[in-house]
Amino acid sequence: MQSAKDMAASAKVGMEKTKATLQEKKEMATEKKDARIDEAELRKREAQAQHCNTGADTTGTGFGTGNTY
Q1: Contact yes or no for 57/63 (Cβ under 8 A)
Q2: Which parts of the sequence are annotated with region: Disordered (predicted)?
Q3: Coil, strand or helix at 69
Q4: What pLDDT is recorded for position 52?
């Protein structure tokens, strides 16, 4: 009888460890994903700032006549 209880307790602990490991991996994956999103946003803003600093036409029309009524 004691052996069955020991096996059940061991199985329960094993499941808890697995659950904790999976939760930790999920959190790490979320952190990595958030870091990649932040990095992409930073690159986008840097590109936008560089584009504005070059004096390029930002009207979106593609004609760039230089007139700013």
Answers
A1: yes
A2: 1-69
A3: coil
A4: 87
Residue 62 DSSP label: S
- Summarize the confidence of residues 23-32 as an average pLDDT: 97
Q: What is the pLDDT of residue 31?
A: 97
Evaluate if residue 39 carries a pLDDT over 70.
yes
Scanning the structure block, which residue is given the tokens 């004096």?
Answer: 55
Catalogue the E-assigned strands of the chain. Answer: none
Write out the H or E segment, with its range, that includes residue 5: helix 2-53
d(CA 15, CA 38): 35
How far is it, in rounded angstroms, from Cα 12 to Cα 24?
Answer: 18
